[in-house]
Amino acid sequence: MASNFNSADIAAFKNVWVFCEQRQGKMMPTSFELISEGRKLADELGVELCGILLGDNVEGIAKELGGYGADKVYLCESPLLKDYTTDAYTKVICDVIEDIKPEILLFGASNIGRDLAPRCAARLHTGLCADCTHLDVDLNGYVNFLRTGSSLDVDNMNFESKLFDVNKNLKMTRPAFGGHLMATIVCPRFRPAMATVRPGVMKKRPYDEAKANAVEIIRPEFKLAAEDIKTEVLEVVKAAKKLVDLIGADYIVSVGRGISKDVEGGIKLAEELAEVLGGVVGGSRATIDSGWLSADHQVGQTGKTVHPKVYIALGISGAIQHKAGMQESECIIAVNKNETAPIFEIADYGICGDLFKVTPMLIEAIKAAKAAK
């Protein structure tokens, strides 16, 4: 560790950083989501947003990060960084952070991010909040988030603290207790404040070509030798497994416990409706826990967070865990027999009825509308 590095010297740290993950020279979509969210945090703090990009011959993709909001990109290139290894990436990132000292560092909660972030946090002697679904620095923004996304009596809560400045600390919100609660974590005594963020949660900003051309590429000094790496990548094998792409879908038809009287028939109806819309099928946690759908179909706090153009909820009551994963959809249509189901509170259109009767009517109506065009 650098002799002048002290994670408790909070005043010495400045700027928001994002670890930008690339694989085989291609930037992962989560990197653009985090740069977009990092831009918001940097603006709230009045500081710069920087990406840190590791790899070999990856300068060509660094400019992309500027297009989504990065002011600077710290580029670390070496043949030893071509393939991801925990030892190499941890050493380089920690060496650069100890020298430049960012106040916030974000990682995507991918397989690599989940492996890398805790190792870096331990080495830097700072805190890490894992699998976040919401981030704020500005207190007013956080209060507004609570007001719309929780059942708390926000107006009668006291957010002052004698221990730390609430307004300057990153407020990291994540699911807790299996998704039954939302917990907000702060790291007031050490820097950088670190978080891994669930893919698909943060909205990507529009790409700006002018900002991409204006981004500053910096090559920080670092030392990395073969003996620093205790593992050797012999071969990279890609396994072909067809998974449903919920995060990229414009139309999602999700099913819940309401299909229990005819599970096979309920899923078949959802698939037919999704097919006429050109979308995919999702499910609540109850459907995944019951084995009716595979885990890649799950929407919610412990599943995927989605932002489709249209989200149709069939037989889903709308527990807070599920709503947290889909409430930012552009249009929500709910079908449920229970007129007091919480899903109706956030639905743009609600149909109180039996999904097994309503869904075929929806399918026929959509087919007729398409035929009439």
Structural description of this entry:
- With about 375 residues, the protein is of the alpha/beta class.
- It folds into 2 domains: about 220 residues, HUPs (Rossmann fold); about 120 residues, Rossmann fold, CATH 3.40.50.1220.
- About 30% of the residues lie in helices and about 20% in strands.
- The protein contains 11 helices and 17 strands.
- The strands form 4 sheets. The chain has a 7-stranded parallel beta sheet, sandwiched between helices. Strands 14-13-15-16-17 form a 5-stranded parallel beta sheet. Strands 8-9-10 form a 3-stranded antiparallel beta sheet, covered by helices on one side.
- A hairpin with a 4-residue loop joins β9 and β10.
- α3 packs across α4 and α7 packs parallel to α11.
- It is globular and about 70 Å long.
- It starts with 15 loop residues before the first strand and ends with a helix.
Shape: globular
* Poorly predicted ranges: none
Number of domains: 2
**Named CATH architecture of the largest domain:** 3-Layer(aba) Sandwich
Biggest sheet: strands, sense, closure?
Answer: 7 strands, parallel
Instruction: List the secondary-structure elements in sequence, H or E.
Output: EEEHEHEHEHEEHEEEHEEHEHEHEHEH
Number of helices: 11
What is the SS-derived class? alpha/beta
Class of the largest domain, according to the CATH hierarchy?
A: Alpha Beta
Distance between the first and last residues' Cα: 66 Å
CATH superfamily assignment of the largest domain? HUPs
